[in-house]
Design a protein that fits this description.
The protein has 141 residues and is α+β, with helices and mostly antiparallel strands. The chain is built from 3 helices and 5 strands, in the order ααβββββα. 0% of the residues are buried.
Length: 141
Amino acid sequence: MKAAELRKSILQAAVQGKLVPQDIHDEPASVLLERIRVEKERLVKEGKIKKEKPLPPISEDEIPYDLPEGWVWCRLNELFNFIDYRGKTPTKTNKGIPLITGANIKNGYMDYTQKFFISEEEYIQRLSRGICQKGDILITT
């Protein structure tokens, strides 16, 4: 088996809960999802995040396989707060606040040899849309 095929089969086993024994004493995913929902509602009320448009429940034809006891299917927006900057390319400058772009993202690492900057004014304006915090996941396409 090639390395890529092995990685694929290990990942598939992991997302199906087949990689390790399941503990019946673990908190059900539905309880965790409820805590996340309550926390997101609190953050919306405090004005820290925007209310998201609800997505339809997962239908039977979207479910590719059965899950272990206590697991549930959910949409990613039930777990995360997405901030989409798509289509908002910043104006790059020769100096100012360092900027990481898709050009800095390489296969498995960050390449800091390419240096980009934006003005302090644009940085402050963009900060009002969302501030990265420890534990955030940044995705580039």
